[in-house]
């Protein structure tokens, strides 16, 4: 009986510690969330654009946190009931709808090229164990479909077309992958115009393909385990 | 026997173990049904979520297009060109709005975004009508486009953030109702509520932004007879020898034929190449044309750990490589740098006229300058020696056509392909407005403003939209 009590106590303690740590991690992942006089870069540009939209700022969108920007920030802070410091801290950024810049660098980097990510995730789900050429080929098939009048007109449209890809049906497509992975390189090559399939619109694994119809397609290339056809 | 007695009897039989099998069977059936229901439920949920993702990604793409189109409309000077650009902007914002409506986000949250998009659509549409009539934009109209563009930039920004959060799992679709759209709540874009006529919707298709990656003029596809291929048909054995020459016989271990394409306009053979002193998995793929044995495509995936070659050196290496393979008079145009490799676009140049139809892409490793890839489909399809006429319009006349606010950086002559498989002979002007670089193409034969492109200078390269 004593043992059970001890066990329960330990479990509770661990849970509490874990939750606390996890919670802390969520808070402390930010970058230096501050912009002040003299700051430069994309973040400043984004801030200036927002202030300009809302009529606080009249200067150029040049990415330099100058005096004019400082005054605009002060005005903005006053109208939104914050301390009018002229320094864009985390709170000001959230008020201005710029929470994105408070997040981890890597995630931000991963999302900047959305088409690459989307394509890479599909390649990851569909052709993970395939040779590099086969991965580029899967990406190229998706892009060929975008250009073909029988398929949707956008990359997302083609990828999420119901029943088109198994990696989509089970949801693994929606999970971000490492920007350094080979599938990302394959996705980039496909987007840059490399097409090992010569305009193919379909591919299938001859060992697992269940559709009879797919075999009526003209096979153009065989790369790795996949047949590519039109 | 009363109910109570029956229950007691049931309990007695249960405890004596006679009915265990029945109970277990029932439990089994119920749990299987439960599991089946659960799976079905999850499947449906996934399907629904996928449709949300699709609508969301599509919408982001359309908003990006709207943003760059609005910017371009402020650069163009001829009413006809402005009209086409605004019409496209109106169409794209309708598509964005349509996709917005598919998201599981309440009207109260996305109302302003939706309103903004219909405003862009309506304003573009009405200005388009005015432009077709040949009237130029007034200063006020200029201002309103400029402010719409400002909102579009911020909207793009906000969508990017949502995308990051969705991909990172920080936001689930169910929560979106609470977090979306902080970019509009500080002010309303304008007062009049927009009309949301059904006729505005689904007018046509989206131009997907692969131009961003690809250089502006590589989209014209090959369905016509390839013009750039000359020579006799070669056998696979002949081509194999050419492949070995391509990489150098001292380096190549083995060449294996992997496929043959007899069905396309350009007939090809494909090969896998392995190298001496390198792991077997590290292969290069190369595709050669049957006719003339030209290098159609090459892809060699290897890890490039660092960059010591500069962009200028890489451009020169790529040019020399092309020259050695028989592609002469090629000049570099746009490039993209990623993972310590550079993808450089080269265009053919004849008598000081850049021919953007004849494109070749070369991939250079920035650690040792090795060529990691090439792609010459567009070149092989379009290349020929052209009869370039003398321009009917003088450079000065053409220059007067471009936006007076533009700060001219360079000018020249170019041939650009159209979507209709024809080519236009143009003056190419590169200039700068409000800190952004643009390319403007004025037809050298009739003075028409043919195209406006925005140049994006990023740390990763020079791209155009």
In short:
Chain A is mainly alpha-helical and 230 residues long. Chain A is built from ten helices and three strands, in the order ααααααααααβββ. An eight-stranded mixed barrel of chain B has the order 5-6-7-9-10-11-12-13.
Number of separate helices of chain B: 11
How would you describe the oligomerization state of the chains in this entry? heterodimer
* Rg of chain B: 30 Å
Overall mean confidence score, pLDDT of chain A: 78
What is the string of helix and strand elements of chain B?
Answer: HHHHHHHHEEEEHEEEEHHEEEEE
Percent range for β-strand residues of chain A: 5-15%
The chain pair with the largest interface is: A-B, 68 and 66 residues
Shape of chain A: flat
Compressed to H and E, one letter per element, the order of chain A equals: HHHHHHHHHHEEE
How would you explain this protein's 3D organization?
The complex is a heterodimer of chains A (230) and B (465). Helix content of chain A is 50%, strand content 5%. About 10% of the residues of chain A have low confidence. Chain B folds into three domains: 142 residues, Four Helix Bundle (Hemerythrin (Met), subunit A); 147 residues, no CATH class; 70 residues, Nuclear Transport Factor 2, Chain: A, CATH 3.10.450. Chain B contains eleven helices and 13 strands. About 10% of the residues of chain B have low confidence. Chain B is of the alpha+beta class and 465 residues long. At the A-B interface, helix 2, helix 5, helix 6, helix 7 and helix 8 of A face helix 2, helix 5, strand 1 and strand 2 of B.
